[in-house]
Amino acid sequence: MKKTLNLAMLGAALASSLPALAQDPVRIGFITTLSTPAGYLGEDARDAFRLAMDQEGGKLGGVPVELVVEDDGLQPAKGKQIIDRMSLDGISLYTGVMFSNVLAAVVSGATQGDRFYISTNAAPSNLAGAQCKPNYFAASYQNDVPHEMAGVAANDLGYKKMVILAPNYQAGRDALAGFKRTFKGEVTEIYTKLNQLDFSVELARIRSLNPDAVFQFHPGGGGINFAKQYGSSGLAKSIPMVVPVFSMDERMLAATGNVAEGVNVVSGWNPQSDNPANQAFVKAFTEKYNRAPTMYAAQGYDTARLIGSALKATNGDIKNAEAFRRALRDARFDSVRGDFRFGSNQHAVIDWHLLKVQAGADGKLTEVPVKTIAKAQVDSYAAQCAL
Amino acid sequence: MLLLEQLLNGLQYSALLFLLASGLTLIFGIMGVINLAQGAFYMVGAFCAAYTAIASGSFWLGGLAALAGAALYGLVIETGIIRRLYNRDHLDQVLATLAVVFFTNELITLLFGRSPPAMPTPDWYNVFVEVLPGLMYPVSRMLFIGAGLLVALGMWLLINHTRLGMLIRAGADDHEMVGALGVNISRLYTLVFVFGCMLCGLAGFMAAPLLSVEIGMGEKVLITTFVVIVVGGVGSVRGALAGALLIGMVDSLGRAYIPPLLDQLLPADVSGALSGGLVSASAYIVMALVLLVRPRGLLPARA
């Protein structure tokens, strides 16, 4: 009896290990932010990444993959711990970090030796310029570009005098600097506090300054607060807003309600773009998760398919770093953001769009495309990168 | 006119801080419990308000749900957890109530998901009233100030002019003696705790249409709430009122007037960074100054 049992177990073990012998799944470390109020960013990127895998039956580019997801809790130290653990575990392909401060703690570990990091979102300027790395790719954008594009959009809209606001921390100061780099008119800068809840004081100042328009960078809850209070203060009716998509993504729009109508949003992804990859993605994501995808989801999906294209080209052999890097740079996939290529510094070169918050076909507010602000926009740091 | 408007804005922020701080200080002053989970009840209130208002279409029903939800959740937490902490030291209380914060965040995520809901508001809510000639002020923010004033008045009446208030004051000084007189001190504590939670629920309801209703929204106000209590004097409701007014005003007026002032005095690239830092630190600077002069706060519980 015992013997047959052992035999059966041996048989089962053999049977289950046979396909594994054929090809071990490529393990991908997905370090992202799932808790804290910003948890929905990581959730969207992860869900979209999984969607791409599910559509291929657990594969990317025909190569079986396994996604190992961990929550960094928006803490750089925790991100560092996770990367250390994952690399001990033999994982050598990473993605998923949402915030620049976490990325800063993760990136050196994630690009050491033959390890690769492909950013779904955060892309700080230092890694785009002088400190660019051969094994670091930003499939999203470069952090400054959305703000620079907002400046261009404001010029196009004919605004001459603007009030620009951001929280007083690195990303906020970068946002205002990026905007000022391209905006030709006159600006008044207002720094808010990080995690500030109420903007009544700033709104009163805006009213007294009476600008042509307002630019503000407040991601997550702060942006919802700002837009809600901007709307209920009556300013929205007289002074339009131009914001990067971080200050008004689709989820924030749902939380802000009707007062967000008319906000100009600058984004690298156009949810209604008629390229077939995007149409299929939006439909599949909405059906599977029962909510509209955000830009974070679009970028997560693109990242998955980018990795898929490189896995396909190298037959899943990521140990040959040189070949894998070349395949990533080629980026042979149909991006949901339209034309996609990597610049010389391995940062995404994409088109940028102006969207406007308006009632969609179903009467609900959505971000409706107005026009393309820039085609194939290269970031301001690419020339400093020696790759 | 702008100054007046900024004063009103400061008053409104003070009202939010007072609603949160008064419950916290009541619970500390009377039961000696440091309750880090105060923000969790605020969040529960806001979520109850938003989802009830969405489901029923009634703004006021949302308010009722916020009070009831926060009070009910407070009752569960008090009988399940806080009750065991009365005689433990503050470290245990901090750890246990911090656990309640994490637990509540996960619970709300499981129940409602991560997408922040939009609290629907009736038409009158977005109307402006001419407070003084030339000064239009939104009803939404006046409602906030009104709620803060009402609660301040109500608590003064409750504590100084009712039998319950007398017991509360007596219980704060010597709960064993009050117990020996035949008063059910444990029930009194439960009542105070639930009342404190209800005040947080009220703050959540008031905040829901103006602020983002999201997981972890309580933690964002927690630190400022503690600053208010320390400035006002730990454990004193009058102190909480004074602290809330001081911090709310300093924060608002600082944000309004420090940056333009420095812009005039200093070159642009220096003043931007400096005023940003100064504004961020203003509440803490005030706290340090107050503690320097009055180490126990402005109006301590037992001077």
Summarize the structure.
The complex is a heterodimer of chains A (387) and B (303). Chain A is α/β, with parallel strands linked by helices and 387 residues long.
Indicate the CATH topology of the largest domain in chain A. Rossmann fold
How far is it from the N-terminal to the C-terminal residue of chain A, by CA? 65 Å
Chain pair sharing the greatest interface: A-B, 41 and 49 residues
The percent range for strand residues of chain B is under 5%
Order of helices and strands of chain B: HHHHEEHHHHHHH
Largest sheet of chain A: 8 strands, mixed
Keywords:
heterodimer, A: 387 residues, alpha/beta, Rossmann fold, 2 domains, eight-stranded mixed beta sheet, six-stranded mixed beta sheet, 14 strands, 43% helix, globular, B: 303 residues, mainly alpha, two-stranded antiparallel ribbon, 11 helices, 2 strands, 75% helix, 3% strand, ABC_transp_permease (chain B)
Descriptive overview:
The complex is a heterodimer of chains A (387) and B (303). Chain A is built from 14 helices and 14 strands. By secondary structure, chain A is an alpha/beta fold. In chain A, strands 7, 8, 9, 10, 11, 12, 13 and 14 form an 8-stranded mixed sheet that branches. Chain A is globular, with a radius of gyration of 22 Å. Chain A starts with a helix and ends in a 10-residue tail after the last strand. Mean pLDDT of chain A is 91; it is low at 17-21. By secondary structure, chain B is mainly alpha-helical. Chain B has one domain (1-122, 162-293). Chain B has helices at 2-31, 38-56, 59-80, 90-112, 139-161, 163-173, 175-180, 185-207, 217-232, 237-265, 268-293, and strands at 128-132, 135-138. Chain B has a two-stranded antiparallel sheet with strand order 1-2. In chain B, strand 1 and strand 2 (135-138) form a beta hairpin. In chain B, helix 1 packs antiparallel against helix 10 (237-265), helix 3 (59-80) packs antiparallel against helix 8 and helix 9 crosses helix 10. Chain B is globular and about 65 Å long. The A-B interface holds A 35-37, 39-40, 43, 168, 189-195, 197-198, 200-202, 204-205, 208, 220-222, 224-225, 228-229, 231-234, 251-252, 254-257, 259, 291 and B 2, 5-6, 9-10, 12-13, 16, 105, 109, 114-121, 125-126, 128, 136, 138, 140-141, 207, 209-217, 220-221, 252-253, 255-256, 259-260, 272, 275-277, 279-280.
